[in-house]
Amino acid sequence: MKKFLFIFLGIFLIYALYKEIPGNISSNNSKKIFMTVSKTNDIVELDLEEYLKGVLLAEMPMSFSLEALKAQAVASRTYTIKKLENGDAICDNSAHCQAWVDPTGSEYYEKISEAVEETCGEELTYLGEPIEAFFHSASGGATENSENVWATKKPYLVSVESPGEEEIMQNFYSTLEITYEDLIKKINAYKGTQLITTSKLKDKIKILSRTNGKHVKEIKIQNSTFSGTEIRNILELRSTNFNIELTNNSIIFNVSGYGHGVGMSQYGAEAMAKSGSTYKEILSHYYPGTSLKKYNSI
Ligand SMILES: [Zn+2]
């Protein structure tokens, strides 16, 4: 009789635990998210794992290897979970959240499903908490410490090498030439004041310092110092990883990579995948010190 009681209690306990697990992810019981579609302003309800397929399709080149796509699936899932935990709204605008397109009927549906399903429910954590899983297109050779871009320091968002991006990214290198006159206009408009007063800038522009990731940290123009990020925003440069050339009338920015440079480099992830790394190796390279766990584990 006692034996039956234990069996009964055991079954009850398993049932109770199962019910109490928030966001349980047995295939048809995934976390739900509400996403605003920017075009229509409609709010749609999506299963988190299905949502991630649309993110993958919008955020990653579909020619990429499965391991790189899996790394992106985990980064995107973690990024989303963190947003949900913070009570932030989710939308399909890449400037605010992550890009998303409806994956229904896509010729890549099978490939993205494989990447999402093979990592189902996996998130990256640091000291047991989901991380801020930032990612970008290509770092230009080394990623950035987060505090150099957004002033917030995170122990797992630190500069790491990111080799091989230039071999697989077609527009890895870009150039912007702008006359001193236009440069002054843009800076003064951005600052809302006549900050730069001379057009004779040839000897008055200098890169003062670089970050650990070799991106421009500070640049001096006449008597003002700007952060690399500020200049990137003002001139819409593809990255803060640039060198300058000064001619008599203009400045030329030679830029490497694309994006803010923090966290995982997508092209770096693909370069690692191509040389045989698994998605777990890719993630622990770009988010050092983090652990991978199932988000429903207790
Ligand atoms: Zn958003």
For the record, the count of structural domains works out to 2
Number of helices: 10
Strand content: 15-25%
Structural class based on helices, strands and sheet pairing: alpha+beta
User: Terminal Cα separation, in Å?
Assistant: 31 Å
Pattern of helices and strands: HEEHHEHEEEHHEHEEEHEEEHHE
Number of strands: 14
What does the average pLDDT come to?
A: 89
pLDDT below 50 for ≥5 consecutive residues: which ranges?
A: 13-28
Radius of gyration equals: 23 Å
| Shape label | elongated
Bound compounds, each kind once, are: zinc ion
**What spatial order of strands do you see in the largest sheet?**
2-1-3
What's the helical proportion of residues? 25-40%
Biggest sheet architecture: 3 strands, mixed
Please provide a written account of the structure.
- The chain is an alpha+beta fold.
- The chain folds into two domains: 27-166 and 260-294, no CATH class; 173-256, no CATH class.
- It has ten helices and 14 strands.
- It has helices spanning 2-20, 48-59, 66-85, 109-117, 147-150, 165-168, 180-191, 228-235, 266-274, 279-286, and strands spanning 32-36, 43-47, 90-91, 122-126, 129-130, 135-136, 173-179, 205-210, 216-221, 224-227, 242-246, 250-256, 264-265, 291-294.
- The protein has a three-stranded mixed β-sheet.
- Helix 2 packs across helix 3.
- The chain is elongated, with a radius of gyration of 23 Å.
- It starts with a helix and ends with a strand.
- The relative contact order is 0.17.
- The chain binds zinc ion.
- Residues 89-91, 93, 96-97 line the site of zinc ion (ZN).
- The site of zinc ion has 6 residues, from strand 3.
